[in-house]
Amino acid sequence: MNLHAFRMFYEVVEAGGVTKASERLRISQPAVTAQLRNLERELGLVLFRPHGRGLALTEAGELLAEQGRRLFSLERDIEREAERIRLGERGKLRIAATYLPANLLLPGWIASWKRRCPDVDIVLTTLNSQEAFESLLRYEADLAVVGGGRALPAGLGCVPLLHDELWFIVPGEHPLAGRKATLAELLAEPFVVREEGSSGREQLMALCQLHGVPAPHIGLQCSGTAETIRAVAAGYGAALASALEARESAERGEIGRVAVDGIRIGNPIGLYTRSGEPLAPVAGLFARFIQSGRE
């Protein structure tokens, strides 16, 4: 069926006649009439009958007019839905994030954003930095929010969000808690570390290589920073942990920070995307939101 001709039919019905429909559509009356005749020939139906000086719908015309109302109402719904998708107000957003932003930052940001865009479905997956980058490169995530100083992989771009710092921590009652120590003194302690592929573990090992000291004995491996901090707070070992995550435990005296002469380790947190590719509308809207203060 010729949908253009069917639309002409619908417009004539809604306008109440050929003359008003032609004025609304800004085309000539003969052109409208020709489309109606073509539609009747195509369908093998008579849709109008003479009525006074105008036309009235036949029974077939009434039935098709009702279907037209449904069809073009659905069209308007589709247009509205497409506009919401274009504006980023509807869709699905997949975020890969490392432990710190996934636990301390993104829940609040997402809650605030969902109040503005309740019809966006969000999937937040917590991974280490290597896995988060791989997820983004494999198109399993739309955005990645990653902490740590890992080198930027080829094919990704980064926008800084905020700056964190990595602290050396020990149990609150440890003799080194709140004191200065040499790197060798601190590394004599057994360490609680994250799994391989995590940025913090890689920075610890790189630090040892840079200063020419042996890597510490790994006494415990955890899959999250919170678990690492709790293990140290419980009285075991030393660790390299995010200041944002460790600060409250330090203020309560559960852990102590150890200052190491000449060593300060940054822990930047950034928003990562695939280079050279425009973001999908929903991802772009969320990216702008978290870059603009999240207010």
TrEMBL record:
Record domain HTH lysR-type: where: 1-58
Iron among keywords: no
InterPro entries according to UniProt: LysR_HTH_N, LysR_subst-bd, WH-like_DNA-bd_sf, WH_DNA-bd_sf
Keywords attached to this entry: DNA-binding, Transcription, Transcription regulation
UniProt-recorded Gene Ontology molecular function terms: DNA-binding transcription factor activity; transcription cis-regulatory region binding
Family: Belongs to the LysR transcriptional regulatory family.
Protein name, as recorded: LysR family transcriptional regulator
Organism expressing this protein natively: Paenibacillus ginsengarvi
